[in-house]
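Deliverable D5.2: sample structural annotation.
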Amino acid sequence: MKSIFLVILLVLPLNFIGGGKSLADDKSQTVERARGVVALKLHLMAADLLDELIFRWSQNPPLGVPSKVVLMNIQNPMGLNAEFSTFLENHLFQLLIHNPSSFIIPTHCDSCNVLTAYSNADQTVITRGAKIPHIMTAENNAIYALYLDFNLERQNLVLRSRLVSLAEEGKIVHAESLTTNSSNPPSLRNPEKLVSVASQREEYENILRRSERARMSMGMKLTLFNFQDDTIIMPPLPWFLVGIDVFPSENRDWYMNLSLGFTSIPGEANGNSFETRYGSRISPTRSNLVQPEVFWNLALGYFEVKGNAARTLTAAGRQTSGEFLAALNSEDHKPVFGTGTVSLGVEVQLARMSRVGLFIGQMVQVRNSEQFAENYHFYGIEMGLSL
């Protein structure tokens, strides 16, 4: 008994030590994830500031005429590595290339950011190549240098830009500061078609509100039939659907769909359908572009098929297998079947463009027919795309 007690005393501390190590690892991973999220947000905020800077310059060029400009090293906020500068440099070059109306011609210069020593009659100077006139002239004939400094000031990211003349001993010809707050989401503008922040946000709001009240839709539906007699087997019918979605409410909490359908199975069936559907959003409570939206729907329709599928559907109303086979093989029986339908379904819409759903329904007798069975049920899956 004493030996067991001693083993327990020895094992428990080891378990606590192992648990402490795991807890420390979890905390380290949590910190790394949080650091990555913050760094990503800073990258997007900085890119948004560059978008705004070049947009303003494209509307009101700071130099007046197209001029060659060398980009100097970008100054990062403390704690960010060279990846931040590389990302912003590439983004800035993309902006300048696609927005020539800024009159800034980005120029490559290997020596501009390298410390270089040169001497004259009075002194020997060690400085960056951008401040040595004969290096700049010999290499690229650049006229100006662009300095960009990013700094964090409380919750704000501040961009300070300076255009400096290389021919006039560092004279600043243009300076501008821009600020964005961490609570403001980046506008994520298209570099090839810069617009103002207000225009970009208005575009986002229009998408979120779905300002278009109607849109085209295309899709596929696979319908499977369920008969009371297990001996009756009928292949599923695939339908190709073309329709239009109508959103009466501005928030698009519910919608109405009108669609035409076509089906064709060589040697088995040909047919067409019409359906009107009414759907209401279950979740989330507000429409958005990120979270999938779940709708339930009620559909009323009519379809008509010809061929062997029509023979099967018509003959399935017989109560016995013998009557079914007799009706199926009857030459007097016309291979045409038409019926109304009522169905309930649930669908998930993704990014307001694609949808996938399940449905179950029952056929409703439209024409007086002794062969129509009350236990005609069907179910299936539907996929679609909104244009």
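Annotation notes: The longest helix spans residues 2-59. The first strand starts at residue 67 and ends at 71.
The annotation will be released with the project's public dataset once the embargo ends.
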